[in-house]
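Kindly review both lines to help learners:
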Amino acid sequence: MPYRVTVRGAEVVADSLDDLDALLERYGDEVAAAVDSSGRIGGGAATLPRSGANAGKDGSLLKAFLDAGTAGVPSGIISQMVGGARGKALPPAMKRWAERVGLSGNDVFQKAFPNGQRGWRLSESAQGAARLLGK
């Protein structure tokens, strides 16, 4: 899924999360998501989580992943935010959530063990996209 972003006033299309991550690394805070009037990134199917009371569970989970960084988020917390999926049902539910908020690809999540618990974290490339979505 291509990601449209604005860098120094010019619209740029990143074809992959790796390309988006490279843009974020190089230009940092100068990169902004190109959002149309419906709140969709680049006119695609992904919607930005709203801030404040409208963020809901999608925005809260995105913030939890960003705040946790490489430590990861415990599976129990993720389960509560993606509709109660547990065990083998959790990864497919996480994938559906990721697509809903605009993170796509096969390498979005990696296993983690926050505080000795089973959990998940965003891959480095997905963290770059998530930072952009979380703005």
In short: The longest strand covers residues 3-7.
